[in-house]
Amino acid sequence: MYNKLIFSSIHKIYYYALIAYTLIFSLLLYFYINLPTYEYKFKNIILSQSIEGVDASAERIIDHITDTNGSFLEKNIINMDIRISNESYLEHLTNRHIASVFIVFLDNGKLYYLLDSSKDDKGELGELFAYEDLAVFLKVKARKKREIYIQEGLMNLGFTLIKPIIQENRVVAFMLIDYTQKSLDVLISRFSSFAHLFFKVIISGLLLLLLIGVYFIWIAHLKNRMYKIPNMNVFSRLYLTDYYERINFSNYYIALVDIDLFKRINDIYGHKNGDNVIVLLMKNISSLLSSEDIFIQYGGGEFLLFIGKKRVSVQEFRYLMEDIRMMVETLDIKIDNEMVKMTLSIGAVIETENSGTLQDAIHQADGALYESKHNGRNSVHYFDISDDRRVYRERLKDLINAGKLVCYYQPIIALDDNTIHHYEALLRIEDGNKIIYPDKILPDLEDSYFYSRIGMHVIEYNVKKLREDRDFSVAINLSSDDLLNEAILSLLISSSDISNRMLIEILENKSVDYDKVEISIQKLKLFGYKICIDDFGSGYSNLDHLLNLSIDYLKLDGSLIKNLHYDKKAHSIIQALTLFCQQNEIEVIAEFVENREIVEVLKGFGIEYGQGYYFDTAKPYDELPKKYY
Fold this sequence. Notes:
This protein is of the alpha/beta class. The longest helix is centred in the N-terminal third of the chain and has 47 residues, at 181-227.
């Protein structure tokens, strides 16, 4: 399965940084260890910077004493007056840092004095100048550039500046400026202090960077562990959220896998056993995947698979999906000494490169999953761009994402004084000049993960209206499954500033977990929300709604109301329900009020509110009257 290599794949930047840091640190450490080897060059650089002023003065003196016709060397050899004059110029360079200044010339591989400004131990014309390293003079002659020579073996001298004297583009002599040992010691001590401080700062900085780098790599490693479901090679949905942009989805086939009728396992055997079933199925599915694939637990019993295209062909991917389905179908799962069978519905996308975004690809897989479920479950369905029903569902999703989901509002009337108590928000989608109604929206998105997004959109849409208009009160429709959705509950709780003006109508659901729904209702009531059961009396509704849920309102379905004034059975049922609600402090709302006769019967029962065409049709918010009370 998708092993630890994902850490190195996603966090390559950390590894590259660590490698670069290690190389730099090793280089600097090597350089520091071999500092004596480079010290001479560094000293020359430091000394060159420190004698720039003297060097410039020496250059001017050289220009002056060579500014005559004829050979500088010959004139100084044969003319004592010129020699004495030039030596006096050399004296201008001497100071407390400079021990002596003199000029020598090279003849037959040996150096001889030409000029010497020294008073003591003065070198005379033609006297041999003994120098340890003749090579430095040959180097100056060849390059025609100054050199600094550090005197290692002399007690009183520190270093010597050797400058070439050039005439007719050839070096005819050398000016030597001897610096005292004290001046060298001062400069070198500064250099050494600077060098050691420099390396200490650099190495300390690198050590700090190393600690920071190790810290971030460790944090990344911990996050990677956090994304993994314990003891399995499966990632949680948080991984997909955090690394959404980094997954190159076009390199994968994508499949959305859902455990068929998994809610029954939780309802019959409990959530602990349900979780064990999920773990068992994930381990078995993982065994069929490779390290190049990504396996994500997308929801409770819903999984997202990314299968590498480089690893398998299209046909092999199809075989793999069928292998996963058949493997789960043949599993013998034991729960509380009972053997149960599980099946999977799978929706897959092959041509992911044609999807605009990863979210689009997941939407397409979800559409294919919808087909799998509605074709009898326990099957694999592939996204087909030419499928008319799929195109319609995708069109609905695109319209909702584009903000075309709106609400029309029908008033709920207080029957005793004919005033508006609140409005019911009725879902609509605007498609150009066409209005799409709920019966054309919800069935085509049912069993789709996008279905829950509709509830989120409705809440967000109405919260905005309520915050803009403080005289506005509204009822919104949510399914019992919506009330078990943590995202929807969190949104309602975060919007509790308008809870006194937003009634929640619970739509019927065939499989209601009353205990869980009641817990959600109690949470919402703590934040000020009122709860209503919608469409009571239609389809498969039963008294469990009234007996098990803490509601504030009961809305009677129109199938009972529209025949009320001549249907004795409907009359008796409503009379009994109204009496029950009055005894339990539940207010009653009647739907499909179409004429005055129905209003009078409802008032005779003591029913508080009515809704229907007799009062008004549903209208956009902008067409509602400005005052609602």
